[in-house]
């Protein structure tokens, strides 16, 4: 998750969906009677949704039972991966999608359930190594969706320092042909730098950071011009660049054994049969993990929270339709949620009043994090969502902190299409500060989630306090807006896919990886 921006100590009171979608469930005659009032379907036998009672129905035992089930599902991938995982394309992820669908099916016709299948390119790196002179750079990281080096074998050439950050083909001199380009991060996406290097005949590319940190980026959608590309920390890159600028010749060997393959994967969408379908309250979590582990916190916790809230919501009728979504391929660059948003018609887009993102609800060394989604930079209503989370934590007597709204989760496609969005999290690979340890507990100087994107992200990696608290907050957010959107800013403009492509929002990330 994103780097912290500021800490807020809050002491309060103690306590037709488009895009190749396939309908899965038909109404059952055994369900309670419904009637249409002013075009809105209402269940006359149930009470109207209430935040306090919906929150009270959230129990940690039920959440942890689902977490155990999700880990068992991840184990279905052991035959192919030698460890549990729910990465897209795996048996574990396919079983995750089936589990969500089966759980929704048990809820009868309260929800209209559909799936949305879409194609993605999945990338995996089996082995990599970068040697500069006689030194193996252990800090070098292959870019996401990088191609392999030629024939999946090591390639050797002299390093060539590229001018102007490599954003134009003219930045690459003739001598880069057959050699390895060294490029400074900045001013354009990593994919542009790699393709420009490829067009110039480079056998590989190295992009170095502008600061001393490592560089974990992605090239984005693969194109034939991309070459095998590493990211390295600024401290290493600047030292090499300085040597090159003083005329030194530095040989290097790059090796990336990588595989890119096309697969299909699946989003799951469930919208209440009742409530106003022209005023949709949308929320989502991603159903996939990285290949390295089972992803029980990231984002099994969000997947589970949504399932449990969706289950408990069936006890009530709603005034506004509620749409739950389980996105696939978030870890590959927010692909499922972006596919969904890109395939909304203008009419369907405008029906979505807001989107709430729930990614990593239960980090073991948690902080209660709220996306700092301000209306100045985002669609009107994003700040109202942020303020709802602030108010709830305050009323519970809980502390909270703001984090950057920088593109690290599935709200991006909605923001780029004019739909207000926000969300909460509990932290990923960021470092908990001394101040945060004082107000949230836990260990200062350690990651919020020490098992982030690792094999140990299992059931034991879930903080039960944060899990229950944040699932109750999700229940509150659903109940609040399912009851009334009267004071929430009205939608006035929808951005189509073409408009969104012409004017991208300045997000630094697409999911867990930097894009520029």
UniProtKB/TrEMBL annotation:
Species in which this protein is naturally found: Escovopsis weberi
Domain PA: residue ranges: 155-240
Protein name: Peptide hydrolase
Keywords: Aminopeptidase, Hydrolase, Metal-binding, Protease, Signal, Zinc
Gene Ontology molecular function: any one: metalloexopeptidase activity
Stretches assigned to the Peptidase M28 domain: 267-476
Keyword Repeat in annotation: no
Similarity-based family: Belongs to the peptidase M28 family. M28A subfamily.
